[in-house]
Amino acid sequence: MATAAFEEIAETFDFLDDWEERYRHVIELGKAMPPLDESFKVPALKVQGCASQVWLRPMPRDGKFDFQGDSDAMIVRGLIAVLHALYAGVPLADVAKIDATAELGRLGLNEHLSSQRSNGVRAMVERIREEAASRA
Which of 54, 69, 78, 115 could bond 26 through an S-S bridge, CB–CB 3.0 to 4.6 Å? Predict the structure, then answer.
């Protein structure tokens, strides 16, 4: 049930030969993402459970989920960009139906992230699900 944007990332990953190239691609996705305005880097938007500092600002529109995010770590910014591709534009009621672990597994992220980064991704996914559910 992945979005077209996520499918595009998955297709790109299929063409990249090794994890080093995929890692660089994730970082490039993060660099391409617009930064979160400093005024939104507040405790209420900070995601707990991440080794790096992470902020997610929910911005649902017309019954569909969207968000802005940022981190002080480049790879984490990239992971936020991947999650944005996975969830942005999904109807609020359908956000919980997305199996993020399986979708991210298609990219090989499950095997190549440190346990701290994996915990951070889980914390971000949980925050996204909570925000969508509270607005559905």
Answer: 78
